[in-house]
Design goal:
The chain is α/β, with parallel strands linked by helices and 504 residues long. It has helices spanning 5-11, 31-47, 64-76, 89-99, 108-118, 135-141, 177-190, 208-219, 233-239, 250-257, 264-267, 282-292, 365-370, 411-419, 455-462, 491-497; strands at 19-23, 27-30, 55-59, 79-82, 103-106, 124-127, 157-162, 172-176, 198-201, 224-227, 245-248, 272-275, 297-302, 306-310, 324-325, 330-334, 348-353, 378-386, 392-397, 402-404, 407-409, 424-434, 438-447, 474-477. It has a 9-stranded mixed beta sheet. The structure holds adenosine monophosphate. Residues 163-164, 208, 276-279, 298, 300-303, 322, 380, 382, 394, 397, 486 line the site of adenosine monophosphate.
């Protein structure tokens, strides 16, 4: 039996006429179309000389052809390597030099700059455009739809996703066919996906969330999706009546809540709202429930591990918590220094083992070894604890832990307290160098519309709920928080921006 994920996907298609994807303004595709287009792209890749194990780098906008290319890579045993379209040519050059792809797919507009940047090291380059033009699309359109999917081992690589690399070099996470299959099947099961579901897909597809969590879950349940080029409130509002499930990053939900037309009626027919990739504030969770009657289901994962935990489908979806380990996944909270498991309630580093855990960092065996314990557990670098009911809560990245006057301060706890104050829309808590305390707890906040930020009032609001050593020494108001494409607050950028606040 083959371990090829595509064989599982194809094996589940029982009605080729069933809808798979609708691209507003760009057509509708059935499961039969998915089989045929992935076949044509697989034949095109083969014509271009792509062989098993070759990396195929893709830097384009969000097109349905990228889905065919991803599936074609699975079918050929090639390794799909998506790149954020925001990367500059010199950043792309780093990834190309590191991964040495046999083929680079990009939009024509960026092609010549990339060629110039890469020089003699440039791989074969083909183009893929949103409007149906491009050399790869032309070639694929001329191919036969039939393609014999290559048998591969479940441990063979299906994709390499580069981590965002906030510290040091960006690392290529090697993801296998079995990593993806096991995780998608677990999600289909715990989130109860079936063929009657229609997913609203507004996420980018160069990241694990939009690419694997969303698309593989749809494919392995026979569901369908409305494939939007990006999250844009008007388009999302227009699509909502036609979908049953939405997956989003927390900013999608705060943007929907800022839209007065988004109310109980808009959300009434929905089966499920899912959030992940960044912390969903308990406050946003509560406001969303009050407005719509739906409790957002928050889950937690990372590029290296696919999804790790999820709040329950049936049962309490606890605001501020990320729920329980997925079936087949073992999670423990451990001493960051030694890896010794902690008792429930203690804050430690989140570690896990399971079929979802990646195969290591591309060409970085030492770095890979550093991230695993001798007993095989992967060290996520996230801090968290298990509450008495077994729910896991994330306290922040280990790198963002603040040590002030010798005390540990966990940013998530302070951010939750800040977000509950009426004047504050969102917050990020960071540690800044301080001559006495080592690090000073500092709050960066965004005011709610019409509210004014008073440092004294905010500290006064926190005093009843937080111990003294946790109180922010300073509160800085900003118009917006710096976030990356997945809605994650860029704390490193904030630390750099305000680095000398307490030193002058
Ligand atoms: P990435 O590899 O870009 O997907 O980032 C993974 C990181 O995002 C994790 O290690 C967490 O720090 C963070 N993350 C993902 N989901 C959540 C969540 N539900 N709550 C808090 N942090 C999250």
């Amino acid at each position: 039996m083959t371990g090829n994920l595509f064989a599982t996907i194809a094996g589940m298609v029982d009605d080729p006429q069933a809808p798979f994807a609708r691209v507003p303004g760009g057509g509708s595709f059935t499961y039969g179309d998915m089989l045929a287009w992935s076949g044509r792209y697989a034949n095109a890749l083969t014509k271009l000389g792509v062989k098993k194990g070759d990396r195929i780098a893709v830097q384009t906008g969000k097109h349905v052809d990228c889905v065919w290319t991803y599936l074609a890579c699975l079918r050929c045993g090639a390794i799909y390597l998506p790149l954020n379209p925001a990367y500059t040519p010199s950043e792309v050059a780093y990834f190309v030099n590191d991964a040495e792809p046999g083929l680079l797919i990009c939009e024509a507009a960026g092609c010549s700059v990339l060629h110039a940047e890469l020089g003699a090291r440039a791989p074969l380059i083909e183009t893929l455009e949103a409007d149906g033009s491009g050399s790869l699309q032309s070639l694929a359109s001329m191919q036969a739809a039939g393609f014999a999917t290559l048998p591969v081992d479940g441990d063979d690589l299906a994709a390499i996703l580069y981590t965002s690399g906030t510290t040091g070099r960006s690392k290529g996470a090697m993801i296998s066919h079995e990593n993806l299959r096991s995780n998608a099947l677990a999600l289909v099961d715990v989130w109860r996906f079936d063929a009657s579901d229609v997913l609203l897909h507004a996420l980018p597809i160069f990241h694990t969330h939009g690419l694997f969590v969303a698309i593989n879950t749809v494919l392995l349940s026979g569901a369908s999706m409305i494939f939007l080029p990006k999250f844009e409130v008007t388009a999302v509002m227009a699509a909502l009546p036609q979908v049953t499930v939405m997956m989003g990053v927390p900013t999608f939900y705060s943007r929907l809540l800022a839209e007065p037309r988004f109310d109980q009626q808009t959300a009434q027919h929905m089966r499920l709202f899912i959030s992940g990739s960044a912390p969903l504030s308990a406050e946003t969770h509560r406001i969303f429930t009050a407005r719509t009657g739906h409790a957002i289901l928050e889950r937690y994962g990372m590029t290296e591990t696919n999804m790790i935990t999820s709040n329950p489908y049936a049962g309490e979806r606890r605001p501020g918590a990320v729920g329980f380990a997925l079936p087949g996944v073992t999670v423990r909270i451990a001493d960051p220094a030694t890896g010794k498991p902690f008792a429930d309630g203690e804050i430690g580093v989140i570690e896990l083992k399971g079929p979802n855990v990646f195969k290591g960092y591309w060409r970085m065996p030492e770095k890979t070894a550093e991230e695993f314990r001798p007993d095989g557990f992967f060290i996520t670098g996230d801090l968290g604890y298990v509450d008495p009911d077994g729910y896991i809560t994330i306290s922040g990245r280990a790198k963002d832990l603040i040590i002030s006057g010798g005390f540990n301060v966990y940013p998530a706890e302070i951010e939750n307290a800040l977000d509950a104050l009426p004047a504050i829309a969102e917050s990020a808590v960071i540690g800044l160098p301080h001559p006495d305390f080592g690090e000073a707890v500092t709050a960066v906040v965004v005011a709610r519309q019409g509210a004014a930020i008073s440092e004294t009032e905010i500290r006064g609001g926190l005093e009843p709920v937080l111990a003294r050593f946790k109180l922010p020494k300073r509160v800085i108001a900003m118009d917006t928080l710096p976030r990356n494409a997945m809605g994650k607050v860029q704390k490193k950028a904030l630390r750099e921006k305000f680095a000398s606040l307490f030193l002058t």
